[in-house]
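[Structure tokenization] protein backbone as discrete codes

[Encoding] learned vocabulary of local backbone shapes

[Begin record] amino acids and matching fold tokens:

___
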Amino acid sequence: STRVALEDINRAVVDRILRVDHAGEYGANRIYAGQMAVLGRSSVGPVIQQMWNQEKDHLKKFDELMVAYRVRPTALLPFWNVAGFVLGAGSALLGRKGAMACTVAVEESISHHYNNQIRTLMEEDPEKYKELLQIIKKFRDDELEHHDIGLEHDAEAAPAYLVLKTAIQLGCKAAIFLSERI
């Protein structure tokens, strides 16, 4: 169990980081659930399942951190529950390439977001936030791996790839903005 000296941290920064990261990993789980509902028995099913298993581990860790740091989750979780599943299933209905285009778009957005958080925590105090930094860096690396898996599985050959990617990334930016605050 994670033990935290709550009096020594910048509560506003940590609350915002944990709330949005928990929401993001929750949403990622729902996206992969939607993709598996459509493509789970296809040739790409095991690849999606592998990525989903990592996302489940990420969510479990953020569940633990939310308790340890006493951070409330975003009030938008019910919305992300539905929106994530619809995005996952909808992109999978475009086929394997559509699902992988979704993965590339989301994981690129999330890895960029994690990099911003790493910079913020480094500016605050790298030693004080050492454990949180290690977790975020590890998860960022996992997300980059998922991004690369998507590219390796022909994401860029999806119908209207750039339009799809741009739309999903705009949605990610909105979800990040809202989940940090609500």
Q: What stands out?
A: Residues 4-180 form a domain with the Ferritin fold (CATH 1.20.1260).
